Amino acid sequence: MEWFAKIRSVVLDAVYPPFCVACGAHGIWWCDACQTGTERVLRDPCPKCLCTDDAHHPFACTGDLPFSGVVVAGFYHNPSLRHVIHALKYQGVTATEQSVEAWLRDIRMTRNLAFPWQTETELYIQPMPLADARERDRGFNQAEWVADRMRCAWAPQACMAHTLSRLPSAMPQASIEDKALRRHNIRQDFIATERVTHPVILVDDVITTGSTAAEAARALLRAGAPRVYAAALALGA
Ligand SMILES: [Zn+2]
Ligand SMILES: [Zn+2]
User: Fold this and answer.
1) How far apart are CA 128 and CA 168, in angstroms?
2) Which residues are CB-neighbours of 13 under 8 A, at least 6 positions away?
């Protein structure tokens, strides 16, 4: 259906002329100036606690996140990147596709370290399933869109996987005030629908504490995944 997508984008461009979602400049959905000006994370966060301090070393870390590596492109506090994510998540603006891919490719070129999954030969990319019924009603999973961009720009050897399902929580997370209870509530939230025999990159738009992604990763590990990496467009504060 690629031709349909192309025609659709030509028609949409005619009806709604592109403007940068971050600065409003006309011509492109995320302009070059905004892309270039968006701070990149060139040092991978600690896979156990997501710390990005230079002095922090994973060997001395007591964090318990189960990832074999974590890669994020930028910071959520960056206004330009936040605009791209908000437009995607809340307005369904997917027309930033080419700009975001170009930005991710550029990050790949400027990183001076290999991706943690670089040596994996059989690799799968799993988007985080949507959180709740309201999101599912909206029918668009931004993590899926981000996963497509990341596969093209960061892991072309990988295949897309959809082996992870999100079970309805007993209670909505936000209504549970007790942290321990909330963690327990998340615990049974994910299930792998088949055995997983290959390493997986778990992709989301934003990763903040990593606790939700960690539960998803644990479901994949329980199902047999030898390693789970996490990747996100932005690292939240
Ligand atoms: Zn702009
Ligand atoms: Zn750490």
Assistant:
1) 14
2) none
- CA distances (Å), origin 82, targets 74, 91, 206: 10, 13, 10
Residue 150's nearest CA partner among 70, 93, 43 is 70
How far is 50 from 63, CA to CA, in rounded Å?
A: 9
Q: What is the number of the ligand closest to the CA of 26?
A: 1
Residues with CB under 5 A from ligand 2 (ion): 46, 48-49, 51, 61, 63
Q: Return d(Cα 224, Cα 171) in angstroms, integer.
A: 28
Domain residue spans of the chain: 2-235
Cα-to-centroid distance, 193 and ligand 2 (Å):
31
83, burial (CB in 10 Å: exposed 0-12, middle 13-18, buried 19+) = buried
pLDDT tens track for 158-191: 999 999 988 876 556 666 666 665 665 555 689 9
Structure tokens, 105: 């490719």
Res. 133: pLDDT tops 80: no
For Cα atoms 90, 92, 95, give the angle at the middle one, nearest 5 degrees. Answer: 135
Under a CB-based contact definition with an 8 Å cutoff, are residues 80 and 65 in contact?
no
Choose among 61, 59, 36: nearest CA to 51. Answer: 61
Query: Quick one: which ligand is closest to 103's CA?
Result: 1
127 SS3 class: strand
Give the closest ligand to the alpha carbon of residue 57: 2
The structure tokens listed for 183 are 């963690």
Question: Residues 102-118: pLDDT tens digits?
Answer: 999 999 999 888 999 99
